[in-house]
Amino acid sequence: MNEGAPRAVTPWLIAPVVALAAFMEIMDISIANVALPHIAGSLSSSQNESTWVLTSYLVTNAIIMPISGWLANTFGRKRLFLVCIAGFTVSSLLCGLAPSLASLIAMRALQGATGGGLQPVGQAILTDSFPPEKRGMASAVYGIAAVVAPIIGPTLGGWITDNYDWRWIFLINVPVGVLLVMLVQSLIRERGVAARGPRRSVDWAGFGFVGLALGCLQVVLDRGQDADWLGSGLITALIIASVIGFVLLTWRELTHPDPMVDLKLFRDPGFAVPFVMMLMLGFMLFGSTFLIPAFAQQLMGYRAVDAGMVLSPGGLITIVLMPVVGRAINKVDTRLLAAIGFVVGGFGLLLMTHLYLGASFQTLLWMRVLQAASLPFLFLPINNMAFRDVPRDKTNNASALINLARNFGGSIGIAFASTMLTRREQFHQSRIVENLQGLNPAYGDLTHQIGSAIGAAPDGTTTLASVYQVAQQQAALLSYLDDFKLLGILFLALLPLLLLVRAGKGGGGPAPAH
Question: How far is the CA of 158 from the CAs of 165, 272, 306, 433, 498, in angstroms?
Answer without folding.
Answer: 10, 38, 10, 37, 39
